[in-house]
Amino acid sequence: MTQSDLITILPLLALVVWACALLLVDLFIPKGRKGWTALLAAAGLALTMGLTLAQAGREASGFGGMLRLDGFSTFLNVLFLGSGLLGVAVAYGYLKRMDLERGEFYSLLLFSITGMMLMAQAADLIVIFLALELLSIPLYVLAAFARPRADSEEAGLKYFLLGAFSTGFVVYGITLVFGATGTTSLAKIVEVLAAGSLGTGSLLLTIGAALILVGFSFKVAAVPFHMWTPDVYQGAPTPVTAFMSVGAKAAGFAALMRIFVMAFPSLSADLTPVLWALAALTMFIGNIIAISQTNIKRMLAYSSIAHAGYILMALVAYGNPAVAADSVASALFYLVAYAVTSFGAWSVVMSLEKPDAKGLEINDFAGLGRRNPLLAAAMTIFMLSFTGMPPTLGLVGKFFLFRTAIEGGFIGLAIIGVLTSLISAYYYLRVVVTMYMREGEPQAEGEYWLTFTTVVTALATVVLQFLPAALFALAAGAVLK
Amino acid sequence: MTAEQILFLLTGALILGSALMVVATRKLLHAALWLVAALFGVAILYAILQASFLAVVQVVVYIGAIAILFIFAVMLTRREMRDQGQQTRTNWWIAALLGLLILAGLVFLILAVPGADRLPAALPEGLDTVRALGNALVSPEAYVLPFEVASVLLLAALVGAVYIASVGKKD
After folding, report:
1. pLDDT tens digits, A197-229
2. What's the pLDDT band for A307 if we cut at 50, 70, 90?
3. Is the separation of the CB atoms in A332 and A475 below 8 Å?
């Protein structure tokens, strides 16, 4: 193992070792004091975050080019670790309250984050496949964590079956790409394509790429591969849902960007129309079905589908070399905006959730404006940010996405984006109206770390919009080369 | 047609037929035995490709361990050895039609690739495939990273499986 190998894998290695150690240490922590496990998990994430930040700006490649360390991976790894830290913060009190306090939760969370980080760093289709599995399998278990509650079991099983099915698509796509090019390394695929000796094999390559796209569309919950999302998001314990909606989505997009922008720009003539249709369908169907939801978790699930559509919109132009850098940067920027907003909104939902999945109807938010002005104000900020209205980060994020789509020449798609954003205002603002205009006596949980998460994400949603240039510059520095 | 090709076609028919029986039979134990047959067919495929080590591993690990584990699990956990529910839905033929169409498309696609009808070239004389495989799995320039990630993945899956199995019981 060379030094460059070690540098590339260092944060990953730290997190894996920490997760295994946590598994052992947890055995000695008595039941009822699992706060220590949460603290140790957070410490591991913070340590890994420190290592990742210490490597910022470095570029290296290890293990025969299978693993890369670059701006792209650093940016995403910070996002994954940040969402992991927030996930631990909201999970601690929630698990205690719902009588689910088990040490395995945190180890599984760390394993899943390891998979996500590996996904952001992988430059070989085999590693991408293993990373996909490593991030998904702990999530299947976490979705069923509230077992024997029936809806949580259903969520876990549904996510597992459909997830395994979609992984099958990815693997099949990888074999076809391997059959056409004779290699799984993204860098070598580029070389083979540049040599242009593929002949009829190029059809095989296109179909392989399309199958990979199908598999990852499932992971990011794009229509028509979104069927699992509402049931899984509703049934899974809410901290898991929050983490899944942010982390798994970002990891799916990480793989899509890495594979398509790095290896398959030459296929864009075939794939751009497909991506166009996926993005348009996802925005439309996600937003329209969200209108009819009365359960807040289901509504946020459809909202999460719709936001996958907005991010896909940026990727439609990936094959145009003049816009490719912008399309990755604006997608990364929006992932951050979505992560902050989404985590905030889910933390408010957790504040109002009662045992046995009670307190999750939108009507249960009635009167929150009077009972708990701080929480209601935070929720208002998140809803505005989801809609893309000022004064929030969501507005800036959508601005960059639309700009990328227009620069790439997809004005029709940008118009669809604006129209569906208008539709979405209806159901997001309905939550705000319910909180302020209707009478009710909601009982909100005042647990310290939960409130902390809500306040931090609300502040971030408002404050970060004043430095969009700085954040966008960071995202632009993370562009794939 | 050479003997090798005939053997390949027969093995393919064996694998597909047994795989179909795995999902079609109503008796769980029979399904597990059909699975053994399908896995054995895959071992023959490896042998045809001169990957003797993989063929042995396929028999030892998949048939010897995993399929037997299936049978144990079925016998130990299920009181009912027959599946009583309806096996097909009313519009199963649409799915079958779609499946056949996709199959036809894939066959067409693979035949279009130059060299798809050629026999695999024989391995060079004296090549030690087991040694090459072993070296590839531990060399940092080759597959040590996927190898290690797979073990982490298995650990995570193990922890998850134990959690799922244990949490239903009240401790």
Report:
1. 776 678 888 889 999 999 999 999 998 899 999
2. very high
3. yes
A183-194 pLDDT, tens digit per residue, is 899 999 988 888
ipTM above 0.85, yes or no: yes
The pTM of this model reads 0.92
Question: Which residues have a Cβ under 8 Å from the Cβ of A158 and sit 6 or more positions away?
Answer: A228, A231, A232, A235
A365's tokens = 């938010």
Hey, where are the domains in chain A?
A: 265-481
Chain A residues near residue B143 by CB distance under 8 angstroms: 126
Dmax of chain A from CA atoms? Answer: 70
Determine, for residues A203 and B112 on separate chains, whether the beta-carbon distance falls below 8 Å.
yes
Q: Cis before residue B120, ω within 30 degrees of 0?
A: no
Q: Inter-chain contact A141–B163, Cβ cutoff 8 Å?
A: yes
Chain A residue with minimum CA distance to B110: A204
Within 8 A of B155 by CB-CB distance, chain A residues are 20, 111
Instruction: Find which of A12, A15, A66 to mutate to test the B interface (most B CBs within 10 Å of its CB).
Output: A66
Helix (H, G, I), strand (E, B) or coil at A295: strand
Q: pLDDT digits over B102-137, tens only?
A: 889 888 877 877 777 777 777 777 778 888 888 988
Backbone torsion region of residue A182, taken as left when φ is above 0, otherwise alpha when ψ lies between -120 and 50, otherwise beta:
left
Sequence length of chain B is: 171
Q: What is the predicted pLDDT for the residue at B168?
A: 63
A364 DSSP 8-state letter: G
SS3 call for A141: helix
Coil, helix or strand at residue B170? coil
